[in-house]
Amino acid sequence: xxxLAIDYGLKRTGLAVTDxxxxxxxxxxxxxxxxxxDWLTNELAKGEIDEVVIGKPAxxxxxxxxxxxxxxxxxxxxxxxxxxxxxxxxxxxxxSVLAHRAMIDGGMKRNQRRDxxxxxxxxxxxxxxxxxxxxx
Length: 136
Hints:
The protein is 42% helix and 26% strand. It is of the alpha/beta class. Helix 2 (68-81) links the parallel strand 4 (49-56) and strand 5 (86-91). The protein is globular and about 40 Å long.
């Protein structure tokens, strides 16, 4: 079974997934947040994912950020819709900054780095990589 990571945003949501062995994190796609619930319903029906990590935005002092007001209702929906799939909130501080740095280090051109959908996918991948590292 795989682990799915969600970088939830108001407009777009970045998604990443592990390999079957749960060793590597790979960018999957970016979906419009308004279609996320349908996307998840279709994707999770395949039965390949048994754990979902969702980025938990926090302020520098560790307190929840304002974005949590949107994420918490989504998490409640998820738990009700998919009670057998483990949902894990995971600190996502600095993932967007790290995503931009990874794009620069990877040699992406400036106009490619402006594509927020790519940033969202990479941020989801970073969340998932950090989560996997924390389990070692």
